[in-house]
Write a structure and sequence with these properties.
With 478 residues, the protein is an alpha+beta fold. It is built from 15 helices and 9 strands.
Length: 478
């Protein structure tokens, strides 16, 4: 095959272990295609993977930074009996007169403050404002913007990792990285196993070759690191796709169709007179048009009655209390223990009587819903605490080193003695034309299906093919 002038180079210093396509079996047929895909994906997608790895590495220290930075807000000195929760909510409202109350986080320990989460027009979309109250004095300790359960700096790091603070557009980078990560990883594993298949010792797959030199030595370290981080990389790719913009929507549809979603307790009250009575007494949450949406925290059972019902039902900490969405809805009290062992038991509570209406325990979740939550928790470094954070940091460092070694391998393929900057030569074109028709048709079908389900993978693959075809056409005309 002919290649563009800026890609031309002398033959590599170390000849390949075997010629592409040599030998019997299926591997020689597909090896050139896998090699070409791995090369182009590595060169063109690796920058996105590198950015995701660096930002992910920074995020691994977020829990400790959050604890230090916001210690004065989240911690208090125990001083006797606590004041009623409704009084604490009222104090938070006095300090934050605008916005709706989204939830109340009950102090998980005697030395922790109560957190009241508000909507706020001064913070970015999807963010909120968290007001912290001393449960012993009802004094407001301060407030900080939050994203979900994360505060300030941790929320900033989380958004940096997700979208580089570029909003919806920035999410394309992380989805592209997650979409290709598993392809690059599995393709690299196939190439490494194929390269050493004549040497059947497993040690050659998991330890660098001490006798290798030059580009072969770099390749050995690149591949061995890839083998060691493979399972973690696959878990990161899958979990990252679950909350991505496009593939995540498809995954969500599949989970819904297979009943793999997290069940929640029913919150609808009985229609008719009961609902009218609740609305009359102001037992409504942040619904538009309600005269006093905060009345639900003191009228009827009130927030203290809901808390008492949750404790009687055996719900533990951390405990979130979510007010009714409207006059026909119930309170929700839910555990949010995301570390191991996880706890997500939840109940709905009648705002007028404080009676438990419905209950869903974590033990009743579908297995795949539990597995999804655990994988995502591990991805975020919260499932196994510090051990999880250290494992993620090691994984991120492994990805960074492996990516840089991949570019080093490419650099070592550049022309020797070139008078100007030139890149390493690409893998030869035309690999797909050498495939048997049944294999080619099956491969196209599978690729199309995966590309449809993971759109960023499919779209970028089409772009790769168009660019490759254009380069080939230019070369043929020259």
């Amino acid at each position: 095959m002919s290649v563009p002038t800026h890609f031309q180079t002398a033959p590599p210093a170390e000849p390949p272990t075997e010629a592409p396509g040599a030998g019997p079996g299926w591997w020689p047929m597909i090896r050139p295609l896998v090699l070409r895909l791995h090369f182009y994906a590595g060169v063109l997608v690796a920058p996105f993977i590198l950015v995701a790895s660096v930002t992910g590495l920074l995020y691994t220290v977020a829990p400790q930074v959050e604890q230090i930075a916001y210690h004065e807000l989240t911690h208090v000195t125990p001083a006797g009996e606590t004041v009623p929760l409704a009084e604490q909510v009222a104090a938070a409202r006095a300090s934050h007169p605008d916005g709706d109350i989204l939830r109340v986080d009950v102090p998980p320990a005697a030395d922790r403050s109560t957190r009241v989460v508000f909507t706020d027009e001064t913070v970015p979309d999807d963010y909120a404002m968290s007001v912290f109250v001393n449960p012993y004095t009802a004094g407001v300790e301060g407030q900080v913007r939050s994203y979900g359960q994360w505060l300030g700096f941790r929320a900033w790091l989380d958004e940096l990792h997700r979208n580089l603070h570029l909003g919806a557009f920035g999410r394309h980078y992380s989805e592209l990285a997650a979409s290709w990560l598993w392809v690059v990883a599995l393709g690299g594993l196939m190439l490494w196993i194929g390269k050493g298949r004549r040497d059947r010792r497993v040690r050659r797959l998991v330890t660098p070759d001490p006798a290798a030199t030059g580009r072969s030595r770099v390749m050995s370290w690149h591949a061995v690191i890839g083998v060691w981080v493979l399972l973690g990389v696959l878990a990161l790719s899958v979990s990252g796709l679950t909350w991505s913009r496009f593939a995540g929507a498809n995954i969500g549809e599949v989970r819904t169709a297979l009943s793999w979603t997290e069940p929640t307790p029913a919150t609808s009250l009985h229609t008719g007179g009961a609902a009218d009575e609740h609305a009359h007494h102001g037992s409504s949450g942040p619904a538009a048009g309600v005269e006093d949406p905060d009345a639900v925290f003191s009228d009827g059972a009130g927030v203290d009655g809901v808390l008492a019902t949750a404790r009687e039902a055996g719900l533990g900490d951390p405990l979130y209390l979510v007010p009714p969405a409207d006059g026909a809805s119930a309170w929700t009290a839910a555990e949010n223990k995301r570390d191991w062992p996880t706890g997500y038991d939840a109940i709905s509570v009648d705002p007028a009587t404080g009676k438990m209406l419905d209950r869903v325990d974590f033990a009743d979740w579908p297995v795949m819903a539990k597995l999804t939550d655990w994988v995502i928790g591990a991805h975020m470094g919260i499932l196994f605490g510090v051990v999880n954070q250290l494992a993620l940091a090691a994984l991120a460092i492994g990805l960074i080193v492996m990516t840089l070694l991949g570019y080093r391998m490419w650099w070592l393929r550049r022309p020797r003695g070139a008078s100007r900057l030139r890149f390493g030569r690409p893998v030869p074109r035309g690999a797909w034309r050498r495939l048997p028709v049944p294999v080619l048709v099956g491969g196209i079908a599978v690729t199309a299906l995966v590309g449809w389900f993971v759109p960023m993978l499919g779209i970028s693959l089409v772009v790769f093919l168009l660019v490759d075809a254009a380069l080939g056409a230019v070369r043929r005309r020259s």
